[in-house]
Amino acid sequence: MQFVIAEKEEFFDNKDHALKAFERFAGTKKLVVIPNITHYGIYFKAHQQAQKLAIEWFDKYLKP
């Protein structure tokens, strides 16, 4: 599982949510923190970066 989180998340504390989920996940995992970006910034400003990360993850772990 790949976790892509906003460094400047304004709706919840990453330490209490995303990072705890990442720590608890037992399988193959990767954590990516997009610097200087807010929750919605991932969708509007870092969309291409997040999309590229997702494609790389799927190609590496899910592509036959």
Summarize this entry quickly:
With about 60 residues, the protein is of the alpha+beta class. The chain has three helices and two strands, in the order E-H-E-H-H. The protein has helices at about 20-25, 40-45, 45-60, and strands at about 1-5, 30-35.
How would you explain this protein's 3D organization?
This protein is α+β, with helices and mostly antiparallel strands. It is about 40% helix and about 15% strand. The protein contains three helices and two strands; from the N terminus they run βαβαα. A two-stranded parallel sheet has the order 1-2. The longest helix has 15 residues, at about 45-60. The chain is flat and about 40 Å long. The two termini are about 15 Å apart. The relative contact order is 0.22.
Topology:
Elements: E1 2-6, H1 18-24, E2 30-34, H2 41-44, H3 47-61
Parallel strand pairs: 1-2
Distance between the termini: 17 Å
Beta fraction: 15-25%
Tell me the radius of gyration: 12 Å
Q: Structural class per helix/strand content?
A: alpha+beta
List the strand order in the largest sheet: 1-2
Count of alpha and pi helical runs: 3
The arrangement of helices and strands along the chain is EHEHH
What is the overall pLDDT average?
94
Q: Low-confidence parts, pLDDT < 50 over ≥5 residues?
A: none
Which percent bin holds the helix content? 40-55%
Number-wise, the strands total 2
Overall, the morphology is flat
Largest sheet data: 2 strands, parallel
